[in-house]
Amino acid sequence: MSAPKPHCYSHPHPAVTTDIAVFTLREDALQLLLIRRGNPPFAGTWALPGGFLDIDEDLDACAARELAEETGVQDVYLEQLYTFGTVGRDPRERVVSVAYFALAPAERLAVQAGDDAADAAWFRLDALPALAFDHADIIATAHRRLLAKLDYSTIAFQLLPETFTLGELQQVYETLLDAELDKRNFRKWALALAQIEATGEVRRRGSHRPARLYRLTDRERVTYLR
Amino acid sequence: MSAPKPHCYSHPHPAVTTDIAVFTLREDALQLLLIRRGNPPFAGTWALPGGFLDIDEDLDACAARELAEETGVQDVYLEQLYTFGTVGRDPRERVVSVAYFALAPAERLAVQAGDDAADAAWFRLDALPALAFDHADIIATAHRRLLAKLDYSTIAFQLLPETFTLGELQQVYETLLDAELDKRNFRKWALALAQIEATGEVRRRGSHRPARLYRLTDRERVTYLR
DNA sequence: CCAAAAGTGTTTAATATACACCCATGG
DNA sequence: CCATGGGTGTATATTAAACACTTTTGG
Question: Which residues contact B189 (CB under 8 A, 6 or more apart)?
Answer without folding.
Answer: none
